[in-house]
Amino acid sequence: MSLISLCKQLEDPRIDRKKEHSLEVIVYIALCAVICGSESWNEIERFGICKFDFFKRRFPDLVKIPSHDTFNRFFSLLKPGYFELVFRDWVSELCGKYEGVVAIDGKMLRGASKCSKDNPFGKKGFKLHMVSAWAVSNGISMGQVKVDDKSNEITAIPSLIKSLDLQDCIVTIDAIACQTDIAEVIIENNADYILALKANQKNRLMDVERWLDEMDGVDIDRPVYRSHYGKYVTEEVSHGRIETRECLVYSPGKIMESMLKDKFEGVKSIVRISTERLEVATKKLSVEKRYYITSLGLKPKEISEAIRSHWDIENRLHWQLDVSFREDAGRKVGNAAQNFSLINKIALYIIKQDETKGSVAAKRKNAGWNDEYLFKLLNKIKI
């Protein structure tokens, strides 16, 4: 099913006498404009006017391009919940049932143009904080929820998890989500979790550190340890340094359940990731240790790879939205800001389906200059 077909399932928020342009025309033009670098409603209107012949071929009955006010009013009226449901149906259509690592993380759209020295977070009601679920293997956002003004990510994450089909997935979340309720809702949704332990769970962290650090220098391949301990080590040489990563997993079975299950539903193992970085030129050595709890058993390789892949959401989603799409500089508010955030994610996914060499920024420019290339991008995902 194409995105246009999915858009037709949305409830149009406009009254009949205000429907000069169809819903699919407005959404399609906006999406194409964002793919090609537009960042505001005015830029979307100008892009549409410049590319009128392009859109006329797609919509033969098109007479004129909607104004910037029309785009603004439409996306301000459009309920983000409806748009989000359409997006999730589209993702399901494209990717089918996903069973890989799902990284969950939040991002604040600060609206830099509204910030000042005295008010660094912008005017009241302007900032937008979104929590996204990122399918690492497919490189696509599976869904997003807004963090309410009077809550935080801890309350938003369970809502996002419940709305997605995460059966047989491994959910990775940073330390803020190392909470009883979040572990429980992940298990209830037939998924596994890897949750980072930091200062917000001080006592648990101290216990885990002690249990694992006591094993330094011990040969865990000995039969007495082999049934409860596992280790996976990788080494990389790049950028003038040698990086060694060791994943140590302790899974004592029923003992673990008695120690931590009262706090974390389904927990089976505790994990330590030790990273040593040796600067070849200076011989400087740095060591970092991070600790996790997980519902996975004695699977050090799988756990290590899942933990490392969590940062994919920062590098391939949030960084691109900040740098390539300049999302933090946006001046939109309310529903329009939330809906535009989703359009950015859709545009990013479409651009990334093109495997030719070039940055996201370069591909956006090329799509704006070259109609054939834009058609190529859209045809890849059957829009």
Question: How would you summarize this macromolecular structure in one to three sentences?
Answer:
The chain has 383 residues and is an alpha+beta fold.
Detailed description of the structure:
It comes from Bacteroides acidifaciens. This is ISAs1 family transposase. One of its GO terms (biological process) is DNA transposition. The protein is α+β, with helices and mostly antiparallel strands. Among the domains are: 3-91 and 334-380, no CATH class; 197-297, no CATH class. Helix content is 43%, strand content 20%. The chain has helices at residues 3-7, 23-35, 41-50, 52-58, 68-77, 80-95, 153-163, 180-188, 202-213, 223-226, 254-260, 300-309, 312-323, 334-352, 360-369, 371-380; strands at 101-109, 128-135, 140-146, 170-173, 192-197, 229-238, 241-250, 269-279, 285-294. Strands 3-2-1-4-5-9-8-7-6 form a 9-stranded mixed beta sheet, sandwiched between helices. A hairpin with a 4-residue loop joins β2 (128-135) and β3 (140-146). The longest helix is centred in the last third of the chain and has 19 residues, at 334-352. The chain starts with a helix and ends with a helix.
